[in-house]
Fold:
Amino acid sequence: MTAAATALTGAAPAAANGAPYVGNQYDYGGVRTPIDGDIPTVDSIADSITGSTDATLADVANHRASLPYGDITPGSGPALSLYPGPTGIPASDQYSVQVNDQPSFVYKSVAAKHDTNRELDTSWTSFSFTGSVTVQVTALAGSGLTGCLIRPYSAAITTTFAGNTCTFTMSQPRNVSVEFQPNIHNPIQHPMLVFANPAENDVPPATGDPNVLYFGPGVHQIGSGNVLHSNETIYLAGGAWVQGAFIANGPVDNVTIKGRGVLDGSFLDTGNQDSNKNQPGMIDIADQSSQNLLVEGITLVNAPRFNVRALAQYTTIENVKTMSWWYSTDGMVAGNKALVENNFVKSNDDSIKLFWGDEVVRGNTVWQLENGAPFMISWNLEGDPSNFHVYDDDVIHAEHYQIEKSAVFRALHAGAGTPNRYLFENVRVENATWRLFYLTVENNKWYDPTLGYGELDQLIFRNIHAYTNYTHPNVVQGIDGTHKVRDVNFVNVFTDNRCIGNAEDFTIDPATTNAIRIVKSADGSCWT
Structure:
């Protein structure tokens, strides 16, 4: 970062030291009990969740190893792979990029929901590398710029700035946002993203394998309704721009969709929010009896509906990038037993849905637009999904401006199920000022109350660091005395420039909640 950026953000937070804790437990009926010491109940739940999800990681890896082109470990080279701009796809008029003094094509996606989008467009470039690279991003249309920084802060990338050019070195793959001061706060009208991918590995051949559908560099117009088949690999090479969508009409097994190319959904966009709800998703595998799916490396843009719905068991979504503008465009959701890792999600509906259980979500970067949540825990779930480990993720923006129930971590649970056993830890939040937590059981217009209600149970938010202050209180509330939000734990949550140890920043309904714990390390080490 520049010196100015370091002064703005402060030093990177250190990990909290843990027990003993001080704080409070809030129980049904309004009873408050001080906490001073260990919280073995919370530690036991966390250990049980990680034990289950660690086993899931091994299961997913074993299944992925059976795919013909399923190896996701970084390749050995070349040192730098730059991809050509597809003929007919205009380059961004906002930015240019050089990588190791070579031009890297810069794309641009234009905002679509004009009544609510406060951004005008998003530019991005994509390349793959090993070792290290020097990147130069030049703002072509900016004026009065004074410096630059890289989000997420956790990337700890130092920049220099001169002549409207931001220069930095990257020594490991990372999906980052390059932001020019003073335009670093919501809304940024012209965001610029750099997708610095690992070198590719296990690339299928362009010809010779009948189970491979290969898209080379250039524009491909294949339309919607492209049916996925078991034992199929779809490859989008760097420089490929594929206007298409893929769907599974029933269960499919052993499917790989990978590459460094772009899947574009703009041809599906009706220009109308309600009409777009009837459009297909970009990658849609809805049958939960499907097994062994890998989506890796590609970029999805301009989807009018959801981007990746991959409800197969044993799913990996790795280093996928999504950018979409409509209220109906979710980022990604995986099925039971899944790994969602190292992705970049920029969506206007929920970015990452946590709905099916036995799931690890780690190393992701989220830029949330005005509607959904970076992490959606429940929306009318009927089952009892459990065992989610969400850690080492970054939310770099949350553009919540006017929708009352918006939050970074959100559950609007109206279903009959009881989602349970969620462990969020080491999650960092930047440039989000509306609300951090909204965790409720409540009715909504999309649910039939005659179906009954469930509860929310055993949620842990541990070592959460929010760099900004919030204008709306956190909410924890059930729907009645028998359908509660219970056993929710906030452990070393740093926000509003302090570590939280009581309900000062919360609205907790004593008639519909139980065992809500808010604690911080007694030694004051809460990422301060």
Observations:
- Residues 103 and 124 are 13 Å apart (CA to CA).
